[in-house]
Design brief:
alpha+beta; Thiol Ester Dehydrase, Chain A; six-stranded antiparallel beta sheet; 1 helix; about 15% helix; globular; binds decanoyl-CoA; HotDog_dom_sf; fatty acid metabolism; lipid metabolism
Length: about 160
């Protein structure tokens, strides 16, 4: 999916290979996240190969959408709080410290999923993001991610 000025379009190429959100990963989801007021939104249409129970999406897919939607939201929220453009330096880069997912209902494979995030807390290098996944008007999963600013010596 192409989106204009998505958060992920501002990730430098050297950190744009993530399976969930990297624009440079041809095998990945390549999600695109934007602001919608105080919320963030990603739209993603699963493929037939994302199956768990026939007709329904694999939980790992749902978790990875929540994960990368939330880390992208964390970065955008830090830039917004600082009143900075997402291309400005030094860059805010976030990795997942923890990922909690509640699978509320089976997620249908047919059609678009809407992933929405809301910042719950910003404290120091940590951003806590609450994210939901919806199919039509049904919320099928809810997640909470603790995103932590990537240390200089990551790895
Ligand atoms: C721009 C490019 C970005 C592209 C990549 C997007 C990534 C997409 C999502 C991913 O899949 S990332 C890959 C999976 N994640 C990792 O591999 C991370 C592995 N873990 C680490 O490297 C470190 O544990 C981590 C950087 C997450 C934290 O280590 P730190 O030493 O920097 O954290 P520190 O101990 O200073 O804690 C900072 C705050 O975060 C909190 N925190 C850290 N780890 C946590 C955790 N696991 N659960 C809950 N909170 C956590 C910690 O409590 C604290 O909060 P408080 O300030 O309120 O006290």
């Amino acid at each position: 999916m192409d989106a204009i000025d998505a958060f992920q379009d501002h990730y430098p190429d050297n950190v744009a290979h993530c399976y969930g959100c990297g624009s440079q990963n041809p095998h990945g989801h390549q999600i695109k996240t934007v602001w919608d007021g105080d919320e963030t939104v990603t739209r993603f249409t699963p493929e037939p190969y994302h199956t768990s129970v026939p007709g329904y999406a694999y939980g790992g897919l749902i978790a990875s959408l929540i994960d990368c939607h939330s880390t992208g939201t964390a970065a955008a929220a830090m830039y917004r709080q600082a009143g900075r453009d997402m291309d400005s330096l030094p860059a805010f880069r976030f990795v997942t410290g923890s990922l909690h997912v509640d699978f509320l209902k089976p997620t249908p494979l047919a059609g678009e999923l809407v992933i929405r995030g809301r910042v719950k807390e910003i404290k120091g290098r940590k951003v806590v993001v609450e994210t939901t996944v919806s199919a039509g008007d049904v919320t099928t999963a809810r997640g909470e991610v603790v995103a932590v600013q990537m240390p200089e010596n990551f790895g």
